[in-house]
Write a structure and sequence with these properties.
This protein has helices at about 5-15, 55-70, 75-85, 95-100, 110-120, 150-160, 165-180, 195-205, 210-220, 230-240, 245-260, and strands at about 1-5, 25-30, 35-40, 50, 85-90, 105-110, 125-130, 135, 140, 185-190, 225. By secondary structure, it is α+β, with helices and mostly antiparallel strands.
Protein backbone atom coordinates (compact mmCIF):
# COMPACT_ATOMS: atom_id res chain seq x y z
CA UNK A 1 0.00 0.00 0.00
CA UNK A 2 1.22 3.51 -0.74
CA UNK A 3 -0.15 6.96 0.03
CA UNK A 4 0.87 9.41 -2.67
CA UNK A 5 1.43 13.13 -2.29
CA UNK A 6 2.28 16.07 -4.51
CA UNK A 7 6.01 15.63 -4.08
CA UNK A 8 5.74 11.99 -5.19
CA UNK A 9 3.93 13.08 -8.35
CA UNK A 10 6.50 15.75 -9.19
CA UNK A 11 9.36 13.28 -8.68
CA UNK A 12 7.56 10.71 -10.86
CA UNK A 13 7.72 13.17 -13.76
CA UNK A 14 11.23 14.50 -13.25
CA UNK A 15 13.42 12.02 -11.36
CA UNK A 16 14.45 8.40 -11.24
CA UNK A 17 12.09 6.77 -8.75
CA UNK A 18 11.30 3.20 -7.71
CA UNK A 19 7.51 3.47 -8.12
CA UNK A 20 5.07 3.71 -10.99
CA UNK A 21 1.43 4.63 -10.45
CA UNK A 22 0.46 2.32 -13.30
CA UNK A 23 1.65 -0.67 -11.23
CA UNK A 24 -0.94 0.07 -8.53
CA UNK A 25 -4.70 0.14 -8.18
CA UNK A 26 -6.40 3.19 -6.74
CA UNK A 27 -8.35 2.68 -3.53
CA UNK A 28 -9.49 6.27 -3.44
CA UNK A 29 -8.65 9.96 -3.34
CA UNK A 30 -10.20 13.33 -2.71
CA UNK A 31 -9.92 15.47 -5.87
CA UNK A 32 -8.19 18.50 -4.37
CA UNK A 33 -6.31 21.65 -5.28
CA UNK A 34 -3.75 23.93 -3.61
CA UNK A 35 -4.52 27.43 -2.28
CA UNK A 36 -2.09 30.36 -2.48
CA UNK A 37 -2.24 33.35 -0.14
CA UNK A 38 -0.32 36.62 0.01
CA UNK A 39 0.28 39.18 2.74
CA UNK A 40 -1.89 42.27 2.51
CA UNK A 41 0.71 44.45 4.24
CA UNK A 42 3.42 43.93 1.60
CA UNK A 43 3.68 44.66 -2.12
CA UNK A 44 4.27 41.25 -3.68
CA UNK A 45 4.38 42.78 -7.17
CA UNK A 46 7.50 44.69 -6.15
CA UNK A 47 9.22 41.73 -4.49
CA UNK A 48 7.75 38.24 -4.16
CA UNK A 49 9.31 35.96 -1.55
CA UNK A 50 8.24 32.32 -1.56
CA UNK A 51 9.69 29.06 -0.18
CA UNK A 52 10.24 25.72 -1.83
CA UNK A 53 9.08 22.42 -0.44
CA UNK A 54 7.70 19.13 -1.67
CA UNK A 55 5.39 19.59 -4.65
CA UNK A 56 5.59 23.39 -4.70
CA UNK A 57 7.15 23.94 -8.12
CA UNK A 58 3.74 24.31 -9.84
CA UNK A 59 3.03 27.17 -7.44
CA UNK A 60 6.29 28.86 -8.40
CA UNK A 61 5.37 28.50 -12.09
CA UNK A 62 1.94 30.05 -11.49
CA UNK A 63 3.52 32.88 -9.51
CA UNK A 64 5.98 33.48 -12.36
CA UNK A 65 3.13 33.83 -14.84
CA UNK A 66 1.24 36.19 -12.55
CA UNK A 67 4.31 38.35 -11.95
CA UNK A 68 5.60 38.37 -15.52
CA UNK A 69 2.50 38.21 -17.70
CA UNK A 70 2.65 36.86 -21.28
CA UNK A 71 6.19 36.01 -22.41
CA UNK A 72 7.37 34.70 -25.81
CA UNK A 73 9.28 31.66 -24.56
CA UNK A 74 10.69 29.83 -21.53
CA UNK A 75 13.91 31.83 -21.55
CA UNK A 76 11.93 35.06 -21.24
CA UNK A 77 10.00 33.58 -18.29
CA UNK A 78 13.31 32.57 -16.71
CA UNK A 79 14.75 36.06 -17.14
CA UNK A 80 11.70 37.56 -15.47
CA UNK A 81 11.64 34.91 -12.73
CA UNK A 82 15.25 35.68 -11.82
CA UNK A 83 14.43 39.39 -11.52
CA UNK A 84 11.02 39.27 -9.87
CA UNK A 85 10.89 36.24 -7.54
CA UNK A 86 12.92 35.09 -4.56
CA UNK A 87 12.37 31.34 -4.19
CA UNK A 88 13.99 29.99 -1.01
CA UNK A 89 14.87 26.28 -1.22
CA UNK A 90 14.50 23.63 1.43
CA UNK A 91 11.96 25.06 3.88
CA UNK A 92 9.62 22.51 5.45
CA UNK A 93 5.99 23.24 6.27
CA UNK A 94 6.41 24.45 9.86
CA UNK A 95 9.37 26.72 9.09
CA UNK A 96 7.62 28.08 5.99
CA UNK A 97 4.46 28.93 7.95
CA UNK A 98 6.46 30.71 10.65
CA UNK A 99 8.39 32.69 8.04
CA UNK A 100 5.11 33.75 6.43
CA UNK A 101 3.61 34.75 9.77
CA UNK A 102 6.73 36.81 10.52
CA UNK A 103 6.63 38.52 7.13
CA UNK A 104 9.95 37.04 5.99
CA UNK A 105 7.98 35.41 3.18
CA UNK A 106 5.07 37.32 1.65
CA UNK A 107 3.45 34.49 -0.33
CA UNK A 108 2.54 31.01 0.86
CA UNK A 109 0.67 27.94 -0.33
CA UNK A 110 -1.03 25.07 1.44
CA UNK A 111 -3.32 22.14 1.00
CA UNK A 112 -6.93 23.14 1.55
CA UNK A 113 -7.02 21.72 5.08
CA UNK A 114 -3.75 23.37 6.14
CA UNK A 115 -4.73 26.65 4.49
CA UNK A 116 -8.04 26.86 6.33
CA UNK A 117 -6.37 25.97 9.64
CA UNK A 118 -3.10 27.91 9.50
CA UNK A 119 -3.25 30.66 6.88
CA UNK A 120 -6.74 32.01 6.45
CA UNK A 121 -7.09 33.05 10.14
CA UNK A 122 -4.11 35.43 9.78
CA UNK A 123 -5.21 39.08 9.62
CA UNK A 124 -2.26 39.79 7.31
CA UNK A 125 -3.33 37.14 4.78
CA UNK A 126 -5.55 37.52 1.75
CA UNK A 127 -6.66 34.65 -0.48
CA UNK A 128 -4.85 35.06 -3.81
CA UNK A 129 -5.73 32.08 -6.02
CA UNK A 130 -6.63 28.41 -6.17
CA UNK A 131 -5.09 26.28 -8.91
CA UNK A 132 -8.43 24.66 -9.76
CA UNK A 133 -9.93 21.17 -9.93
CA UNK A 134 -9.35 18.61 -12.69
CA UNK A 135 -12.74 17.72 -14.17
CA UNK A 136 -12.56 13.99 -14.90
CA UNK A 137 -15.38 14.26 -17.39
CA UNK A 138 -13.69 16.76 -19.68
CA UNK A 139 -10.03 16.57 -18.65
CA UNK A 140 -10.05 20.35 -18.13
CA UNK A 141 -9.20 22.34 -15.02
CA UNK A 142 -12.22 24.13 -13.55
CA UNK A 143 -12.74 26.62 -10.75
CA UNK A 144 -12.76 25.35 -7.17
CA UNK A 145 -16.30 25.94 -5.84
CA UNK A 146 -14.88 26.34 -2.33
CA UNK A 147 -12.90 29.39 -3.50
CA UNK A 148 -15.15 31.15 -6.04
CA UNK A 149 -13.60 33.71 -8.42
CA UNK A 150 -10.14 32.67 -7.33
CA UNK A 151 -9.27 30.20 -10.10
CA UNK A 152 -5.70 30.91 -11.22
CA UNK A 153 -6.84 31.42 -14.82
CA UNK A 154 -9.39 34.04 -13.75
CA UNK A 155 -6.96 35.85 -11.44
CA UNK A 156 -4.39 35.94 -14.25
CA UNK A 157 -6.96 37.22 -16.77
CA UNK A 158 -8.07 40.01 -14.42
CA UNK A 159 -4.47 41.18 -14.14
CA UNK A 160 -3.25 40.69 -17.71
CA UNK A 161 -6.44 40.95 -19.78
CA UNK A 162 -6.34 37.45 -21.27
CA UNK A 163 -6.08 33.82 -20.16
CA UNK A 164 -2.62 32.24 -19.83
CA UNK A 165 -1.44 30.15 -22.76
CA UNK A 166 1.68 28.79 -24.43
CA UNK A 167 4.35 26.18 -23.76
CA UNK A 168 5.16 27.37 -20.24
CA UNK A 169 1.50 27.31 -19.23
CA UNK A 170 0.97 23.85 -20.77
CA UNK A 171 3.91 22.41 -18.81
CA UNK A 172 2.54 24.02 -15.65
CA UNK A 173 -0.93 22.49 -16.19
CA UNK A 174 0.54 19.00 -16.61
CA UNK A 175 2.65 19.31 -13.46
CA UNK A 176 -0.15 20.93 -11.45
CA UNK A 177 -2.62 18.18 -12.37
CA UNK A 178 -0.26 15.39 -11.33
CA UNK A 179 0.55 17.21 -8.09
CA UNK A 180 -3.03 18.18 -7.17
CA UNK A 181 -5.00 15.10 -8.19
CA UNK A 182 -2.54 12.61 -6.70
CA UNK A 183 -1.67 14.62 -3.59
CA UNK A 184 -3.89 12.62 -1.22
CA UNK A 185 -4.46 9.19 -2.74
CA UNK A 186 -4.34 5.62 -1.40
CA UNK A 187 -3.07 2.84 -3.70
CA UNK A 188 -2.50 -0.90 -3.35
CA UNK A 189 -0.63 -3.47 -5.39
CA UNK A 190 -2.83 -4.73 -8.22
CA UNK A 191 -2.80 -8.24 -6.71
CA UNK A 192 -3.71 -7.10 -3.19
CA UNK A 193 -6.42 -9.51 -1.96
CA UNK A 194 -7.97 -6.83 0.28
CA UNK A 195 -8.43 -4.26 -2.47
CA UNK A 196 -12.20 -4.61 -2.59
CA UNK A 197 -12.53 -4.43 1.20
CA UNK A 198 -10.53 -1.22 1.30
CA UNK A 199 -12.67 0.35 -1.45
CA UNK A 200 -15.84 -0.65 0.43
CA UNK A 201 -14.50 0.76 3.71
CA UNK A 202 -13.67 4.09 2.06
CA UNK A 203 -17.06 4.17 0.34
CA UNK A 204 -18.77 3.54 3.69
CA UNK A 205 -16.91 6.48 5.24
CA UNK A 206 -17.75 8.80 2.34
CA UNK A 207 -21.41 7.78 2.42
CA UNK A 208 -21.70 8.29 6.17
CA UNK A 209 -23.02 11.84 6.77
CA UNK A 210 -21.24 12.25 10.11
CA UNK A 211 -17.85 11.13 8.77
CA UNK A 212 -18.20 13.17 5.58
CA UNK A 213 -19.19 16.27 7.51
CA UNK A 214 -16.10 15.95 9.73
CA UNK A 215 -13.82 15.66 6.69
CA UNK A 216 -15.46 18.54 4.82
CA UNK A 217 -15.23 20.78 7.86
CA UNK A 218 -11.44 20.47 7.58
CA UNK A 219 -10.99 20.40 3.80
CA UNK A 220 -14.04 21.94 2.17
CA UNK A 221 -16.35 20.03 -0.17
CA UNK A 222 -14.40 18.08 -2.76
CA UNK A 223 -15.30 15.09 -4.91
CA UNK A 224 -14.25 11.61 -3.82
CA UNK A 225 -12.87 9.24 -6.46
CA UNK A 226 -12.93 5.58 -5.46
CA UNK A 227 -11.88 2.37 -7.16
CA UNK A 228 -9.55 0.93 -9.77
CA UNK A 229 -11.62 1.99 -12.79
CA UNK A 230 -11.64 5.61 -11.70
CA UNK A 231 -7.92 5.43 -11.02
CA UNK A 232 -7.26 4.19 -14.54
CA UNK A 233 -9.35 7.06 -15.89
CA UNK A 234 -7.32 9.60 -13.94
CA UNK A 235 -4.01 8.14 -15.11
CA UNK A 236 -5.28 8.13 -18.69
CA UNK A 237 -6.14 11.85 -18.50
CA UNK A 238 -2.77 12.66 -16.96
CA UNK A 239 -0.87 10.63 -19.53
CA UNK A 240 -2.67 12.42 -22.36
CA UNK A 241 -1.19 15.65 -20.98
CA UNK A 242 2.27 14.08 -20.66
CA UNK A 243 3.65 15.09 -24.04
CA UNK A 244 7.30 15.17 -25.03
CA UNK A 245 7.16 18.97 -25.32
CA UNK A 246 5.66 19.38 -21.86
CA UNK A 247 8.16 16.99 -20.27
CA UNK A 248 11.20 18.53 -21.94
CA UNK A 249 10.07 22.05 -21.03
CA UNK A 250 9.46 21.00 -17.45
CA UNK A 251 12.91 19.41 -17.19
CA UNK A 252 14.49 22.56 -18.64
CA UNK A 253 12.59 24.84 -16.25
CA UNK A 254 13.34 22.81 -13.12
CA UNK A 255 17.03 22.66 -14.01
CA UNK A 256 17.43 26.31 -14.97
CA UNK A 257 15.05 28.05 -12.58
CA UNK A 258 15.38 25.96 -9.43
CA UNK A 259 18.77 24.32 -9.99
CA UNK A 260 17.24 20.90 -9.40
CA UNK A 261 18.45 17.69 -10.98
CA UNK A 262 15.74 16.69 -13.45
CA UNK A 263 15.80 14.08 -16.20
CA UNK A 264 13.72 13.55 -19.31
CA UNK A 265 11.86 10.23 -18.99
CA UNK A 266 10.65 9.03 -22.41
CA UNK A 267 9.09 5.98 -20.77
CA UNK A 268 6.33 8.23 -19.42
CA UNK A 269 5.10 9.07 -22.92
CA UNK A 270 2.10 7.22 -24.33
CA UNK A 271 3.23 4.45 -26.64
CA UNK A 272 2.11 5.04 -30.24
Amino acid sequence: MIVSNGGNAESFLLRKVDYNYHDYSLVGLQNLTIIVGKRNDQNVEKELRFAAGSGQNPDAMALTMLQCGPQPNLQAYLNCYNKRIIYVPGMGGGVRRLAYMNGELNVTRETTAAYLKNVRPMKENVDWFAHGILDLGTGRVVSDPNFPRLHFVDVYARRWGDVPQGDFYDAYVMLKNYRDVLQKAIWVDKNNPNKKKLEEALSAMVNDPVSLSAVEQDTGKYEWIIGEQQGEKILDILQNQTTETNLRNLVWWNSKAYGQQAIFKPELLRKK
